[in-house]
């Protein structure tokens, strides 16, 4: 044994103690040491867990169960996970360990009877909770027997199906993984939530606070639309408040666990935080940010006039503050070793890791620079870890580009030869804005690093425009970042990223009679986005995955091999020919509408003839949807749909949105993902503009909202043209919103001024 005790109190813990107390435990100890108001707690260390495994002789059976497990077979995986969890849950905890925990619990009880048990991952061998969704937390525990049960439940969560899958794919050994459990006084909060010490997207000195009634789990899990407060740290005042109807709250229930209950109508619309509380929370944010040296994502709880801080970790969406601190590259042109398209802004340097195919993703470490021919959905877990991404193939709208932008990771795509000329371990610098790769680490940090150096842009939410500026989202985990831009809604939610992430085709769920599972996965993902945009339109697009992306998934074995999947069996054509698959999606949307999400609109991709819209609408009607009272619209991605726009309007579309990524490729026959013809990919080609103009004018005349959600909607030049031609909304990537909002505002002002000058002859 290592000599580390089974129990450590917060006061004994520092941030270096992750191997014993896990990330959560170490962070709490560090926070307490700098005087943040952290509720008292002790940690059952990872050494205690190991001792439990050894003394109960569980190591061997667990090893047997998990060794050479085929994790790609879901049934085998689920059954092994169930058995492993049962082994851990049912084993009898050694008496001396029980006694130590009881003694510590007795001591903790002096400050409050109710406690929470939170799993605390000890290394990279467990993904973050958003990926695994498996690390248990048990809230509201009263009594030692309940506590011991909860601790075993947390330990058992190390063997959840997704955690096992993740470790297998990442090459971690199940035999050596560890887990610690934080046992902490539960704050029976009247209100609670999260805060970002600096703006989570731009890094500006704005504290963003979200909160709701009851325990913070309702905010963290996205179950409620929280109030939102923006506190300007320089002016020291609250500059924006958004009070949302807080319909439910999560509260302690009896002696174990929580319940979700309705909030009485009289409290739903009440502003939960006073200006004074917002200011105090912001101060704690600043203390933590200054201590750790990077902006923090924190959880807080309030009872009476007491504030507690429950969690503090770096904001990952700012990507190592790379963008916030405005680093610059100081290098001569001759250290540029590669060039491609800058697909996701930001600068990062680190060691190269070459990924030939998905089997290599286990090699990827935090901070590496991932080099690959082209990314695919299986690589997303690894893409979350890396500092930057570089691909051989692809253009601004390929998988790597879309996912990197949402993750906020710098990326350069279409370099043609990155995998050939770079080698593992080589240190490089990637400029995701300019599309350049430099040899060596040549990032020049700001003159004096630190938040005070952050360049301050105008708060994006403050510019009001007549043309709505919406945001594109592909991954629910990006919803909060997307909402933090202040966008007027979501102009495109691509669901294929969500579905491809399940690793099983919709057809697999149908064949295995697990339709409900599919519906609930899809529904939960979409709900996260809807909740992030209360009262604002969210246009969800029906499935548009080409056959080649389905083929690697379970259930995708019989996908047809197509010469050109881009022109193949995808989008609405496939859904209309696969009624069962379409029905799964419609049932999901219907449930959301039934739950009251009337901001949900549905958009059909790849339509080429109005009859496809009519047939699709009919399927919705047959599924019991009140089709005249929901927003159904189409993407204009095929020239045919722009030419026939008037017939679409007659067929009853409520909105149309230009998918220029495809519209351009189909109009001028340039493959959007082929780096050999990238130079000829021309968004403002006169033929493309003529099609767009035709459709805008017809939609305006027909009173139909007309928007754009292709990449061209993130380009100021194109957006200027679109606003001049009367588009009613634009939808851009998260990183482009501030710039696009400014472009739209300037263009609108110029149009108004020009009109006034004309009228008054000045
Ligand atoms: C488009 O074609 O412009 C679009 C937004 O869809 P996708 O990029 O998913 O094909
Ligand atoms: Mg498209």
UniProtKB/TrEMBL annotation:
PEP-utilising enzyme mobile domain sequence ranges: 365-435
Claim: Magnesium is one of the keywords in the record: yes
Pathway: Carbohydrate biosynthesis; gluconeogenesis
Family: Belongs to the PEP-utilizing enzyme family.
Function: Catalyzes the phosphorylation of pyruvate to phosphoenolpyruvate.
Molecular function GO labels: ATP binding; metal ion binding; pyruvate, water dikinase activity
GO biological process, one term: gluconeogenesis
Cofactor dependence: Mg(2+)
Alphabetic keyword roster: ATP-binding, Kinase, Magnesium, Metal-binding, Nucleotide-binding, Pyruvate, Transferase
Name of this protein: Phosphoenolpyruvate synthase
Domain PEP-utilising enzyme C-terminal, first and last residues per copy: 456-748
């Amino acid at each position: 044994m290592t000599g580390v005790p089974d129990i450590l109190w917060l006061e004994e813990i520092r941030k270096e103690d992750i191997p014993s107390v896990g990330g959560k435990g170490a962070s709490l100890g560090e926070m307490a040491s700098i005087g943040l108001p952290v509720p008292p707690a002790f940690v059952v260390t990872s050494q205690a867990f190991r001792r439990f495994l050894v003394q109960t002789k569980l190591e061997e059976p667990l090893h047997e169960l998990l060794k050479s497990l085929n994790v790609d077979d879901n049934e085998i995986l689920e059954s092994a996970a169930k058995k492993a969890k049962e082994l851990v849950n049912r084993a009898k905890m050694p008496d001396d360990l029980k006694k130590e925990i009881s003694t510590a619990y007795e001591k903790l009880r002096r400050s409050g009877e109710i406690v929470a048990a939170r799993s605390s991952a000890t290394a990279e061998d467990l993904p973050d909770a958003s990926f695994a969704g498996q690390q248990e937390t048990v809230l509201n525990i009263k009594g030692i027997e309940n506590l011991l049960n909860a601790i075993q439940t947390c330990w058992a969560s190390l063997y959840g199906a997704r955690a096992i899958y993740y470790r297998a794919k990442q090459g971690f050994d199940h035999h050596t993984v560890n887990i610690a459990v934080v046992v902490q006084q539960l704050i029976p909060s009247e209100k609670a939530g999260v805060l970002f010490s600096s703006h989570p997207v731009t890094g500006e000195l704005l504290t963003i606070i979200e909160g709701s009634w009851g325990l913070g789990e309702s905010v963290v899990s996205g179950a409620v639309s929280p109030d939102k407060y923006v506190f300007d740290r320089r002016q020291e005042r609250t500059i924006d408040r958004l009070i949302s109807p807080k319909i439910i709250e999560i509260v302690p229930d009896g002696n174990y666990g929580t319940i979700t209950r309705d909030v009485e109508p009289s409290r739903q619309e009440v502003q939960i935080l006073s200006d004074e509380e917002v200011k105090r929370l912001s101060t704690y944010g600043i203390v933590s940010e200054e201590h750790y040296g990077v902006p923090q994502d924190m959880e807080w709880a309030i009872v009476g006039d007491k504030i507690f801080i429950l969690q503090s970790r770096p904001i990952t969406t700012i990507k190592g503050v790379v963008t916030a601190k405005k680093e610059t590259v100081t290098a001569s042109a001759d250290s540029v070793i590669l060039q491609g398209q800058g697909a996701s802004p930001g600068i990062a340097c680190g060691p190269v890791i070459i990924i030939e195919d998905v089997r290599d993703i286990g090699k990827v470490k935090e901070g590496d620079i991932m080099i690959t021919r082209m990314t695919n959905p299986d690589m997303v877990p690894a893409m979350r870890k890396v500092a930057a991404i570089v691909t051989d193939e692809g253009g601004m709208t390929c998988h790597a580009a879309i996912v990197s932008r949402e993750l906020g990771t710098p990326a350069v795509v279409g370099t043609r030869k990155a995998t050939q000329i770079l080698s593992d371990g080589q240190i490089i610098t990637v400029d995701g804005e300019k599309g350049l790769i430099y040899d060596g680490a040549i990032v020049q940090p700001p003159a004096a690093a630190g938040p005070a150096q952050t360049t301050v842009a105008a708060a994006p939410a403050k510019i009001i425009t007549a043309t709505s500026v919406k945001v594109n989202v592909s991954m629910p985990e990006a919803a909060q970042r997307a909402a933090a831009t202040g966008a007027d809604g979501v102009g495109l939610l691509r669901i294929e990223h969500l579905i491809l992430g399940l690793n099983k085709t919709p057809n697999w769920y149908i064949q295995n009679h697990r339709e409900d599972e599919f519906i609930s996965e899809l529904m939960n993902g979409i709900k996260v986005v809807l909740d992030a945009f209360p009262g604002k339109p969210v246009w969800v697009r029906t499935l548009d995955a080409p056959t080649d992306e389905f083929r690697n998934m379970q259930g995708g074995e019989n996908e047809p091999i197509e010469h050109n999947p881009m022109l193949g069996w995808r989008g609405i054509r496939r859904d209309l020919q696969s009624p069962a698959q379409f029905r799964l999606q419609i049932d999901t949307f219907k449930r959301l509408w039934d739950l009251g999400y009337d901001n949900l609109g549905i958009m059909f991709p790849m339509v080429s003839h109005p009859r496809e819209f009519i047939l699709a609408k009919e399927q919705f009607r047959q599924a019991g949807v009140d089709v005249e009272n929901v927003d159904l619209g189409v993407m204009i991605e095929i020239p045919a749909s722009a030419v026939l726009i008037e017939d679409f309007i007659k067929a009853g579309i409520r909105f149309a949105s230009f998918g220029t990524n495809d519209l351009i490729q189909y109009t001028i026959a340039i493959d959007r993902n082929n780096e050999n013809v990238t130079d000829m990919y021309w968004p403002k080609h006169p033929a493309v503009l003529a099609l767009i103009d035709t459709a805008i004018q017809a939609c305006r005349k027909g009173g139909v909202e007309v928007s754009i959600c292709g990449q061209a909607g993130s380009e100021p030049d194109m957006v200027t043209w679109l606003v001049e031609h009367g588009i009613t909304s634009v939808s851009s990537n998260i990183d482009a919103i501030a710039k696009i909002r400014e472009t739209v505002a300037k263009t609108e002002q110029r149009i108004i001024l020009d009109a006034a000058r004309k009228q008054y002859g000045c």
